[in-house]
Amino acid sequence: MHELAIAESVVSTVLERTGGRVSVVRLRVGRMSGVVPDALVFCFELAAAGTALAGATLEIEEQAGLAHCRDCDTDFSMRDAFLLCDCGSADVELLSGRELQVTSVEVV
Amino acid sequence: MCSTCGCGEADVRVTTPGAASDAAGHGHGHGHGHGHDENHSHDESHSHDHVHLEQDDELRTHTLELEVAVLAKNDGLAARNRAWLAERRITALNLMSSPGAGKTTLLERTIAATDRAVSVIEGDQETLFDAERIRKAGARAVQVNTGAGCHLDATMVSRALEQLRPERDSIVFIENVGNLVCPALFDLGELRKVVVISVTEGDDKPLKYPHMFAAADLVVINKTDLLPYVDFDMERLTVDARKLNPLVQVVPVSAKTGENLDAWLTWLT
């Protein structure tokens, strides 16, 4: 249940930067990040309880996985975690999908 | 969770078996806010937004762009661990696996077989069992008990290194909590990540736990002495692991019999 540890990091990150007068916290979560958005929303409520962020809403923008194949020089979206291009090449660079960022907050 | 401040580090205990102060107790002081970091000297490059906010009382709501990595604090501390280890030419390896894959047995073998000084940070939710085993095998060890936690993080490793005081040019093994999910996400400051998988667990693990295998530098396939008794396709595991992580190396061993241990020891050096 690493989402709880991650939710606690979100709470401390936002509190450090805002002092806590925040109604909405926005996150960008990549599909390859290993974090389950629903679990994170659940854990955020627990982590925020008793802090100045209690009651704040967590909004998650999911970022699809995007990769670049060096062999056929094309970009493609990842359907799963496999770093394989349809052309059969494994010489693939992940361009996006591992993000785990607090993008912005709504300050009251 | 911590009964004093509700933070998740609460139950973490760092213990050196046999040391007088076994009962390290509640590790982190309170009155630290919710930073979870007793040492604030590594501040990331965040601005002091709150100074302005206090003058904005009359505004209703406004959007404050942050664009900050959620794990920035952990990653910053991991970078500090990494620099501390590099200064001392210490090789730190993060060993991850399911419970029972044979990490501790592999370490017992390694301690007996290698010329380099070895010390170990043992991560488990409870008990000092593994640290005691390492000590009996002839190496120094500290045990980190994470309580409810399912993985080690950079703060725990930093505290463990303070107690362990590994010598220059040595190897530090960080035996993570047995779990193929969460440990993959947390940088500890290690040089390399090693996944240990045993043949009794099945060859489908890379597909089931892709993040762990994507993060690994080396996959050790343990318990090869049991291959005659289980359906385990070494080729399938290797092919699947490389689909996730094209450059990953795979080393089959039997920590119990010592079979092919040389390949593991060669990788270590």
Offer a few descriptive terms:
heterodimer, A: 108 residues, alpha+beta, 3-stranded mixed beta sheet, 3-stranded antiparallel beta sheet, 34% strand, B: 269 residues, alpha/beta, 9 helices, 30% helix, disordered N terminus
What would your notes on this structure say?
The complex is a heterodimer of chains A (about 110) and B (about 270). Chain A is an alpha+beta fold. Chain A is built from two helices and six strands, in the order H-E-H-E-E-E-E-E. In chain A, the strands form two sheets. Chain A has a three-stranded mixed sheet with strand order 2-1-6, covered by helices on one side. A three-stranded antiparallel sheet of chain A has the order 4-3-5, with no helix packed on it. In chain A, strand 1, helix 2 and strand 2 form a beta-alpha-beta unit. Chain A is elongated. The two termini of chain B are about 40 Å apart. Chain B is of the alpha/beta class and about 270 residues long. An eight-stranded mixed sheet of chain B has the order 1-5-4-6-3-7-8-9, sandwiched between helices. Helix content of chain B is about 30%, strand content about 20%. Strand 6 of chain A pairs antiparallel with strand 2 of chain B.
